[in-house]
Automatic annotation (TrEMBL):
Keyword Protein transport belongs to the record: no
InterPro entries: MFS, MFS_dom, MFS_trans_sf
Protein name stated in the entry: Major facilitator superfamily (MFS) profile domain-containing protein
GO cellular component, one term: plasma membrane
Superkingdom of the source species: Bacteria
Naturally occurring in which organism (per UniProt): Clostridium kluyveri (strain NBRC 12016)
Protein keywords: Cell membrane, Membrane, Transmembrane, Transmembrane helix, Transport
Location of the protein in the cell: Cell membrane
């Protein structure tokens, strides 16, 4: 079977493997935090820095990926990033103290920030429009599978081995894909004259970092809300400065020209709402079932798992659905599923049949998976190959920020509702809020031409 694959498909699968390693590492760590807190004799809130610091580091250094790939070569940057990620994983497992472990998580975050966008770029830059949806689909699988299996794999490792293996499992994966990549990926052209936009990088890094730090603070309780709001506002102001700088700079860190193309611009605006929802819904449903229904974490998690089952179960059919309905039709259908299930979840009670809750979670996952696939295909459908580097970098920055904001946003929203309503009503309104969020992308997509992105599905 492998021998019958084209070289392009083999490379796409290899890149998907590196994405899987990075996404799994970013999600599986949360299952090990209690054990790690005991091991290092520190509080759970302190050990949780391993997650937030990693995510913030990724957001800060992602903007570097496009320029470095252009300046030093995509193959070289990807292989170096994979190797650094692999050996920083080993260093995490062997960390003698928490400070060293935190430092290695920062190193791991930097390498992940370079590895993930570069992997996507390796696939995107040489893929013709007619094959774009197919190739991009390979890159979506890791984002769907890794979060689904992370709790199970993490729980198994913590129960039967030790937290060290959370990081050690990256070593064989990293070494194998690096060795295959050295042989399989062609050496690409580099631009030695490409100047580095230091001011642009500093502005983007500060804006992204401050926004995510503010979002993280919001999850620590009402006492931090004003500080959180202040940081987010500061980050947004810096974001406007970044936009102005990138528009005027003669050699910007990455170009904003992609935003002139409707299909790409829509994917950054309404697509961000989807990414917010993707992060928020599993979290909200989990906390709701534990807090309001008084279910155990294991029981609540087993029901939330149906979101991920829906994500993965529909995936083999997403491309045919998109080809049948077009991007516009597929997106509107997926938004409808997300909207209806979000509203319906607001009305479940302790007497609700378990199969109904499972069904709603499943359909919610189906809708998100279909929308995610459609957005990823549509995003680059009208971007010229030579412009995909900048577009890929911008897309990575936007999606990372949106994902990072999801849990923080719904946490604040539910807490705000608790000022005016009973706690169970506040959670119910939280589901309605997530459903109503879908109205914005619906309005945007409604005005798209029916044949938008047709070159990738014809």
């Amino acid at each position: 079977m492998v021998s019958s694959m084209t070289k392009e498909i083999k490379i796409a699968l290899l890149m998907a493997a590196s994405l899987f390693m990075e996404i799994l590492d970013g999600t599986i760590v949360t299952t090990a935090l209690p054990k790690m807190a005991q091991y290092f004799h520190t509080s759970l809130s302190t050990i949780a820095l391993l997650v937030s610091v990693y995510l913030i580091t990724v957001a800060i250094f992602i903007p570097l990926s496009g320029w470095m790939a252009n300046r030093f070569g995509k193959k070289k940057i990807w292989i170096i990033a994979v190797i650094i990620f692999t050996f920083s994983s080993l260093s995490n497992a062997l960390a003698p103290n928490f400070s060293f472990l935190l430092l290695m998580r920062i190193v791991q975050g930097i390498s992940g920030a370079l590895m993930t966008p570069t992997a996507r770029l390796i696939v995107l830059e040489k893929t013709p429009a007619s094959q774009l949806l197919k190739m991009v689909s390979y890159l979506i699988w890791p984002a769907l599978i890794a979060p689904a299996i992370a709790p199970v794999v993490g729980g198994f490792i913590i129960t039967y081995w030790s937290w060290h293996w959370i990081f050690l499992i990256n070593i064989p994966i990293g070494l194998i894909i690096a060795l295959i990549g050295i042989k399989l990926i062609d050496t690409d052209k580099i631009n030695k004259t490409s100047s580095f936009d230091l001011l642009g990088f500093i502005e983007i890094a500060c804006s992204s970092g401050i926004i995510l730090i503010g979002a993280e603070l919001a999850t620590h309780g009402k006492n931090y809300w004003f500080s959180s709001l202040g940081l987010i506002i500061l980050g947004v102001i810096l974001g406007f400065m970044v936009f102005k700088h990138l528009k005027k700079a003669s050699n910007p860190l990455f170009s904003l020209d992609g935003l002139k193309i409707t299909s790409f611009r829509i994917c950054q605006t309404s697509g961000s709402i989807l990414w917010l929802s993707v992060g928020a819904m599993p979290y909200l449903l989990t906390i709701f079932l534990q807090t309001i229904f008084h279910w155990s974490a294991v029981k609540a998690g087993s029901y939330v798992l149906f979101i991920f089952i829906g994500n993965i179960g529909i995936k083999p059919f997403t491309n045919p659905i998109i080809r049948k309905l077009g991007y516009r039709g597929a997106l509107l259908s997926s938004f409808g599923m997300v909207f209806i299930t979000s509203i319906a979840l607001a009305f479940i009670e302790t007497t609700t049949l378990p199969i109904w809750i499972m069904f709603l979670a499943l359909v919610s996952g189906v809708g998100r998976s279909l929308a995610l696939t459609a957005y990823n295909g549509l995003s680059f459908s009208e971007i010229d190959p030579q412009d995909r580097n900048s577009a890929n970098t911008l897309n990575a920055v936007v999606s990372t920020l949106a994902q990072g904001m999801g849990i923080s946003l719904i946490t604040v929203v539910v807490n705000l509702f608790q000022f005016f309503f009973l706690i169970n009503t506040a959670y119910e309104l939280g589901f309605i809020f997530l459903g109503l969020l879908m109205l914005f992308p619906v309005i945007e997509v409604l005005f798209l031409p029916k044949n938008i992105g047709h070159a990738t599905i014809s």
